[in-house]
Amino acid sequence: MMTAQANNPDQPKNPMVGLQNAAGRALNLMTISVVIGLIYLAGAALFLSRAFQLTGTNSVEQPIYYALGFVFSIVVIICGVAATNFFIRSVTRRAMLLAVAVQLSLVMFSIRVADLGVPIAIIALIFTTVLGFATLRREQSDLMTNLGIFSAVLMALINILAPLNQVEIRELKVFVPTILGIQVMIYIVLMAMELVSATLRIKTTSAFLAITLVPVALLAVIQSNFTQRALRTQNNEGLVLAAVQASNVIEEFIKTNRYNTSLDASLPIVTEFVEADPYERQEAELQQELEYALSILTRSRQQNYLNSYAILDKNGRNIYDTNKFQQVQNESSQEFFVSPLISGRPYVSPIFFDDDDNPYIVFSAPIFNRDREVIGVLRVRYMAIAFQRSLENYKGLFGRRSYPILLDENFVRVADVSNPGLIYRPIEPISAANMLILQSTRRTPANALSDDETVTPYIPEMAKALRSSAPNPYFTFSDPGTTGQILTAGTAVRLSSTKWYLVYIQRLDLLAQLFEEQNRVSLLVATLIAGMVSIVASQISRILSSPIINLTATAERIAGGDLEAEAAVESGDETGALALAFNQMTAQVRTLINELEDRVKARTQELAAQNETLVLRSQQLQTVSEVARGITSTRELERLLTQVTELISERFNFYHVGVFLIDEQGEFAVLRAANSEGGQRMLARQHKLRVGAVGIVGYTTGYGVPRIATDVGQDAVFFNNPDLPLTRSEMALPLKVGDQIIGAMDVQSTEANAFTAEDIELFSVLADQVAIAILNNQLYEETNRALEESQALHRNYLRMEWTREGMQRRINSYAYTQKGVEPRPVVLTPSIEKALTTGETQVQTQEESTLTIPISLRGEPIGVIHLQEQSNAQRDWTEEDITTVQSVADQIAQTLENARLFEQTMRRAERERKVLEITSKIRSTNDIQTMIQIAAHELQQTLNASQTQVILQAAPSTPAQEPNGGNGRSGNGHQPDGVD
């Protein structure tokens, strides 16, 4: 049998690759058993060593380590049994025994070891898959794979649910993922290189698991991170809300007492007491009246922490104090006295300490006399413990482990609800110099100099967050006031009335537990999904995708406008929750739209009356806008003027609109456009009015100002036109460009008093735009005419130049034949003549197939390209042929023109050179006769002339010198000099 297998070319060469005979499967089983035995041996040694280390400690973890070490030791023994056939000869039984032992041990491991359920489940799945196709037959390997899937899901679920106490082993958190990574790489290599004869089901399951598990894991991580961010954001927002509510109490306390102090200082009895003579103040009646008023104020304020009222005179002496022990003190150096006395405004002091280290806060306000002069200061002292008592009501506002802290400008605690013993202690170390300043000004108690953090636990993270100008108001720190320094989150609010900070903090241990629970739920869901997908992939895909498809269809219906559509809640998982949330969102949208519709309807009814008054003005502005657009897009003057008259008449319901332009002589305003029937008759007879003389149009064109006339038919001075008999109101607006009047716009209505001053302003803007458009049109036409004349002159120049060029050249035609390019006499066929005359391409396909393309230079034909088929066969010249030849013709035209200009330039340069040479020779002598002879000789040689003459004009003679009657000859008969 072994010989036959060795000679079989289809036999696998590697004994690990699915050998179906007993020897191959036994070899594979022995290899796997040895590797697994070594891994389990290392695990057993680790667990037992940990158990021995905990001997005598009464730790609850010691029995767990003993149990795991015992189980792993049993698996090592089973690996030895499976590696040999000494006890069990059947390979299948040994493989099944090894698989069951490993699965049970890993289940035990998942129950007792924390945070390793998922990697252990994947290891178990890969192990059973490899063991199945390496040691079992195909039908048995499928059963082994199902067992691996079931046990893997069970391991993951047990580890996540944690029914028993679990231990955390840091070494395994590195060791297990490493083993998993090596195992996955080996498995991928075996599958990719087809070194494993796995069934199609195993390959499909493996590929599907690889495709499914990675996205599921990533989705779990993303969802976990997103949920954590959402919870943290919600927690931060709650902290801000709690901080704002707590700070409002402090703000209200400070602002109310500052206002009350100012109000109390304005009492007449207080002013009277300060202005009174020191002897009069001791009168029982005046002092009793003051005491009675202050007692009423004390009772009306209902302040349990009000310490005393005091009245200070202008020199800072305490002339009256409800606390008799402080009445004789001089307080002129205190800020609460100096600030109101100078500024005349109320003052709020920081926290001060008296001689007994009792903290207090002072509110002071200036006392004015009838002339509004400051004559004293009213001081009100409150016990600072009021802040602590006020904030105690806000402890646990955002959870039972949340509380506020009030800090002053030096980051010293003014109130700390959770740690009252830390009040008036800083959150960061204060330098000795600053501490001495605070102590000298009684801003801190005597025992505040301690830098021992056990007495004054510091929170540097909080101080850094308060000092930073970054926009993020949130910070976290380890609360030193808790056992184990629990992580705490906080947010700060800066008080507007003082330079203090209200910090609201919350311990994050509950939030961490919530995060952990959320991660556990996400991992549990991911494990269940992975297990179900691996068993029934297609069904789970259909089940999971169906709600999403339905939800998408519902979303499309809602996007199409059907707000009554609702998503069917088919399950209670995340998809069902999403559908339920989507339905809630849709309901909120419907409610919001209904509320908006009601508001819009009510607002629309309120604005209906206002809109009616704005309709006319809106139409007017819209007409101005449309005319402006027409001005920018219309180049024809007559069309522009007609459009202006029609738009104005249509939108404003005017009887007649006309546009007059002043003629070139400036004598008459000529009607150029009108919309009415009478206006059309006036246009037909070329109606015109004398500038400055006839009607309001003549007045407007003469003086350049708008004019309005009412009941025009009764005003013969301004208007009397039988073509427009219904006119009762007329408005004429000048068309001006700068100071130049170019015409007028005439608007007539059948209603009396139809035009107002606002109409003049509106239509004046329109008239200015029309005037600019007319001027632009005239400039545009003049520019076009100049451009056409320039182009015509240039074409004429090109025609003359190329006509002369053709006359000068002997050969003006070249033909391409089989012999090459050769000159030919010019034969002007009808198509060539027509192409030269019209500049158009000539195509002929009747008798002979020819194509004649003009060679045009700036629109002027200077030649042609004439193509003709060699045979008499007809040819249809395509657009591509014509385009190609036309491109060549354009290139030839430009090239010929460049060559002509080059030759012309060279000839001019040669002429200039010869002139320069002749000039140099002439200048080489000073004798006039020699100069003339050189000039005649050089010109004769240069021009190749047969005879050259240089004639000098004789000097003019007077009548006395011309006895022969001035016949052009001198008296002595001297002739003009000449050289032949």
UniProtKB/TrEMBL annotation:
GO biological process entries: signal transduction
Subcellular location, principal: membrane
SMART domains per the UniProt record, alphabetical: GAF, HAMP
Keyword Glycoprotein (UniProt): no
Domain HAMP: 542-594
Pfam families: dCache_1, GAF_2, HAMP
Membrane topology of the entry: Multi-pass membrane protein
Signal peptide limits: none
Coiled-coil annotated spans: 892-919
InterPro entries in the cross-refs: Bact_Sigma-Reg, dCache_1, GAF, GAF-like_dom_sf, HAMP_dom, Sensor-like_sf
Transmembrane segments: 26-52, 64-88, 95-111, 117-136, 143-162, 174-196, 208-226
Alphabetic keyword roster: Cell membrane, Coiled coil, Hydrolase, Membrane, Transmembrane, Transmembrane helix
Subcellular location, record wording: Cell membrane
Superkingdom classification of source: Bacteria
A GO CC term attached to the entry: plasma membrane
PANTHER family assigned to the protein according to its UniProt record, in alphabetical order: STAGE II SPORULATION PROTEIN E, STAGE II SPORULATION PROTEIN E-RELATED
Name of this protein: HAMP domain-containing protein
Species assigned in the record: Levilinea saccharolytica
